[in-house]
Specification:
This is EAL domain-containing protein. It comes from Cohnella ginsengisoli. The structure is a single chain. This protein has 11 helices and 10 strands. The protein is globular. The N terminus is likely disordered. An 8-stranded mixed beta barrel has the order 1-2-4-5-6-7-8-9, surrounded by 4 helices. Helix content is 46%, strand content 20%. By secondary structure, the protein is α/β, with parallel strands linked by helices. The structure holds ligand C2E and magnesium ion (3 copies). Ligand C2E binds next to strand 2, helix 3 and strand 6.
């Protein structure tokens, strides 16, 4: 059963069926130019340890701060960026920005925190992916153990390629997460073989946990299966206390969602981190 989560309704830039080629080209060029003009921004959505309430990591999510259209969400430009391949330099920029930011926070003395960066299938199939990431790690002095790459199930369809590439990424010391888990085809056997560290349960299942017993069963099963395989599970799209309680009752330890925080600009997240560090120091006195 396919679930419509609205990810693909990029109406602002919807290609006109009659002149689609031209509009696509225009958008590709605009993205290229926006990259040069530094119009993209990375937002960070906290990931929370349910038991402690601590922010244990963030997911880096790109937005386009367009001079006239305002803040444009990724659903409106990522699909075309993927189609045209411009996602490759854009994705590298996001990765670099997220690593630099992580390093800045570390140097400011904030508690170590992981950052998860979405990898596009276009990036995944580039022969120089591993070298590119290695280079970014070196340049930004990012500690690889705090970097997680989010891939999707579809990227692992070519098993031999996936084993090779994911193996090399793991050798760099970074972590791997399967995003939107449950929406694609996954061979459970390979989850182990690929050395996946974490599964991110797709928002479409979490959304209906309280109303759809099938979805509740699916979520419970994914959590139990991940546990058996020794893989962490994180639930995304948690919006309500009920959803959180259900996840807790199923022994899911990590969540990401509007119930806690929306994706935030770096400065806002930093304020949040500073405040919670302060509260901790005070309560330890
Ligand atoms: P994703 O990787 O599955 O990211 C999670 C999306 O769910 C984000 O949307 C986030 O804002 C949203 N979300 C989180 N919690 C909640 C919640 O409680 N309720 C609801 N309704 N939504 C929630 P966003 O930022 O609009 O990104 C959409 C998608 O765009 C991402 O889905 C990812 O596939 C893609 N994307 C974003 N940034 C990048 C990037 O740098 N590179 C690539 N390749 N894709 C990206
Ligand atoms: Mg993601
Ligand atoms: Mg995704
Ligand atoms: Mg996701």
């Amino acid at each position: 059963r396919m679930k419509d989560d609205g990810k693909n309704n990029y109406n602002v830039f919807k290609p006109n069926p009659n002149s689609g080629g031209i509009e696509r080209l225009t958008l590709e060029n605009s993205i290229r130019k926006a990259l040069q003009l530094n119009e993209f921004v990375v937002y960070y959505q906290p990931q929370i340890d349910i038991m402690t309430g601590d922010i244990i990591g963030t997911e880096a999510l790109v937005r386009w701060n367009h001079p006239t259209l305002g803040l444009i969400p990724p659903a409106k430009f990522i699909p075309i960026a993927e189609e045209t391949g411009i996602i490759v330099p854009l994705g590298e920029w996001v990765l670099k920005t997220a690593c630099l930011q992580n390093q800045v926070w570390r140097e400011k003395g904030l508690a170590p925190m992981s950052v998860s960066v979405n990898l596009s299938s276009r990036q995944f199939s580039k022969h120089d992916l591993v070298e590119t990431i290695e280079e970014i790690l070196r340049e930004t002095r990012m500690d690889p153990q705090y970097l997680e790459l989010e891939i999707t199930e579809s990227m692992t369809m070519n098993v031999d390629v996936a084993i090779e590439v994911l193996g090399k990424l793991k050798e760099l010391g970074i972590h791997l997460c399967i995003d939107d888990f449950g929406t694609g085809y996954s061979n459970l056997y390979y989850l182990k073989l690929f050395s996946i560290d974490r599964l991110k349960i797709d928002r479409s299942f979490v959304r209906d946990i309280m109303t759809d017993s099938n979805d509740a069963d699916i979520v419970a099963t994914i959590i139990a299966m991940a546990y058996k395989l020794g893989i962490d599970a994180i639930a995304e799209g948690v919006e309500t206390k009920d959803q959180l309680d259900f996840l807790r009752s199923q022994n899911c330890h990590e969540v990401q969602g509007f119930y806690y925080h929306q994706p935030l600009p770096a400065e806002q997240l930093e304020q949040l981190l500073m405040k919670s560090a302060e509260i901790k120091t005070n309560s330890q006195r």
